[in-house]
Amino acid sequence: MRRTLSLSKQIQRTSIRVGLLTLTALISAAALAQVPPPPPPVAVAAIPLTTAQRGTQTIVNLNFRVPPGYHINSNTPKSEFLIPTALKMDLPTDIVLGKIDYPAGEELTFPFSPDEKLSVYAGDFTVALSVHPLESVMPGKYLMRGVLRYQACDNAACYPPRTLPVSFEVKVVKGPATHKVNPAQSPHVHN
User: Fold this and answer.
1) What's the rounded Cα separation, in Å, for the pair 134 and 32?
2) DSSP state of 24
3) CA of 155: how far to CAs of 32, 86, 152, 178, in Å?
4) Where do the DSSP E strands lie in 30-94?
5) How far is the C-alpha of 25 from the C-alpha of 10, rounded, in Å?
6) b/e sequence 4-23, b meaning 16+ C-beta within 10 Å
7) Exposed (0-12), middle (13-18) or buried (19+): which is 115, by Cβ within 10 Å?
8) Is the sign of the CA dihedral 10, 16, 22, 24 positive or negative?
9) Interior/surface letters 121-144, b for 16+ CB within 10 angstroms, e for the rest
10) Which one, 21, 98, 105, 174, has the greatest CB density within 10 A?
11) Which CATH code is given to the segment(s) 43-173?
12) Collapsing DSSP states into helix, strand and coil, what is residue 120?
């Protein structure tokens, strides 16, 4: 009789566990069905090798593409509550990051805020940045790394901020040789 009770309790416990697992799976599926899928990511075009002379500033253009049907806030959104698009770079020692030049955003209205124009990037946009290898940099190739932080939105909702890794190479070369003038010959005659 004891074995029968024990076996009966085991079957009952197993049935409860299976029921709880099924209920958990159904609740999870329902929750996932309500969360919109994340937008496709912003893409960066391939960046060709950039040649920069030591001691001079060189401009590098980074070309980005926002997928159709989406937009991202510009670098200067109109509201303090919007997350700006921002490029952060981490450059090697002795290569200085100059100005980062963001394009002006398009001022558009959206169904979720028809009375307010928002400053956004949609489609293709270019961020220009300057790199300045110091005179002390050894000639050679250097990898520049960074991230573009942005928040994508569609006409109905905004999604959590994302980051896009950005990297490109800069080939540092020596500057043109400076012409050295020989000092004038001494007026004294040397024999």
Assistant:
1) 52
2) H
3) 21, 22, 10, 58
4) 43-44, 50-53, 58-65, 71-73, 86-90
5) 23
6) eeeeeeeeeeeeeeeeeeee
7) exposed
8) negative
9) bbeebebebbbbbeeebeeeebeb
10) 105
11) 2.60.40.1250
12) strand
Q: What are the pLDDT digits (tens) for 24-36? A: 555 555 444 455 5
Query: Could you tell me the CA-to-CA distances from 6 to 17, 19, 45 in Å, in that order?
Result: 17, 20, 67
pLDDT digits (tens, 9 = 90+) for 103-120: 999 998 888 778 888 899
The closest alpha carbon to 61, from 138, 132, 131, 140, belongs to 131
Number of neighbouring beta carbons within 10 Å of residue 46: 6
**Tokens 């001691």 belong to which residue?**
55
In the predicted model, is pLDDT for residue 190 greater than 90? no
Give the burial class of 189: count Cβ atoms within 10 A of its Cβ; 0-12 exposed, 13-18 middle, 19 or more buried.
exposed
For 47-72, how does the pLDDT look when each residue is reduced to its tens digit (9 = 90+)?
999 999 999 999 999 999 999 999 99
Contact 125, 66 (CB under 8 A): yes
What pTM does this model have? 0.72
Contacts of 25 (CB under 8 A, 6+ apart): none
